[in-house]
Amino acid sequence: MTKNFFYATGRRKSAIAKVWIFPDEKGRSINGRQPLNYLGREELVDVVEEPFKSVKLQEKFRLRANVLGGGTAGQAGAIKLGIARALVKYDESLKPLLKKDDLLTRDPREKERKKFGQKGARKNFQYTKR
Predict the structure, then answer these.
(1) Which residues, 6 or more positions from 42, have their beta carbon under 8 angstroms from its beta carbon?
(2) CA distance 71 to 87
(3) Checking CA distances to 16, which of 29, 69, 96, 130 falls within 20 to 30 Å?
(4) What is the maximal distance between C-alpha atoms in the chain?
């Protein structure tokens, strides 16, 4: 029995994306909306499409993504990683192409926490000698 979809999870900053790709279908939806309608900027839609363009399979898959947390840029990055991981589940031979374009690496940068006695993560209150 063959699966009719491939699922993967992508993360970036504080955003988490659950991604399903359906072979031999057309369409894109992020949280039930069109990608440009949801993300708001064409650059972010290009970020989401990057894994498909890397393996030259733009029109071969339908994309469904559920994203929560973070901002739109972090969400686009999370979807991108989820798509790349799902494509590897679809066809293991795509892994070297995706790895070469650095699409399978999770960006580990997170927001640094605010420390007590300080104004922010790094910023301190102004020092006065008195």
Answers:
(1) 36
(2) 24
(3) 96
(4) 77
Among the four given CATH numbers 3.40.50.300, 3.40.47.10, 1.25.40.10, 3.30.230.10, the one describing domain 6-100: 3.30.230.10
The alpha-carbon radius of gyration of the chain (Å, integer) is 18
- Give CA–CA dist 104/110, Å, rounded: 18
Question: What residue segments make up the domains of the chain, in order of their start?
Answer: 6-100
Check residue 130 and give its pLDDT.
81
- Whether the CB-CB separation of 90 and 19 falls below 8 Å is answered with no
Which segments of 55-117 does DSSP mark as H helices, in order?
72-90, 95-100
Q: DSSP secondary-structure letter at 33? A: B
Q: What are the pLDDT digits (tens) for 74-88?
A: 999 999 999 999 999
CA nearest 32: which of 66, 58, 4, 60?
66
DSSP annotation of 93 reads: G
Average per-residue pLDDT in the chain?
93
